[in-house]
Amino acid sequence: MLDYIKRWGVSFCVTGTLAFVLVIFLPIETFLSNSSEFQFVFKDFVPGLIVIFLIVTFALSVISAAFNRKIHGFILALFFCICVCIYVQYMFLNKGLDMMGVNPDGYKTDVKSLALNLIIWLIITALILIVTRLGEKTKIILFGSFFC
């Protein structure tokens, strides 16, 4: 039982990071960058996101903590990889993309950009999985999730 509680605590932190990025940060950033395109105001938008964030965090942490130690570590490493890939994509690889409604032709990207993004995501994923296999994966992932 104590082992499950410890795994759940670690899972809660890592899944909280993933849920924050997917459920809070990306929708709010999209809304604030394109607020004139939406038919509602910010204060109507946030409470629903917070409720969804809490539900997703709790559900993912309970589910991931239910697996055995090896699978649990892999799931957390995968969640952490997703967080890092989203961060790198959003902060560095999305420069120069059109905002919503600015380009009349819609969003377009070339195959070269897509291939480069995929290669970068695969390298990040491989590096994180290698590092977590070599070291104390729980500590590495938990520490890294606080900085994502």
What does this protein structure show overall?
With 148 residues, the protein is mainly alpha-helical. The protein has one domain. The chain is 77% helix and 0% strand. It is flat, with a radius of gyration of 18 Å. The mean pLDDT is 80.
Annotation keywords:
single chain; 148 residues; mainly alpha; 0% strand
Could you give a quick summary of the protein structure above?
With 148 residues, this protein is mainly α. It has helices at 2-33, 42-65, 69-93, 111-134, 137-145.
Quote the distance from N terminus to C terminus. 30 Å
Q: Using only CA atoms, what is the Rg?
A: 18 Å
User: Which structural class do you get from the secondary structure elements?
Assistant: mainly alpha
Total discrete domains:
1
Low-confidence stretches: none
Please give the count of helices.
5
Shape: flat
Mean pLDDT comes to: 80
Profile the largest sheet.
Answer: none
Proportion of strand residues: under 5%
- The SSE string, one letter per element, is HHHHH
Q: What is the tally of beta strands? A: 0
Share of residues in helices: over 70%
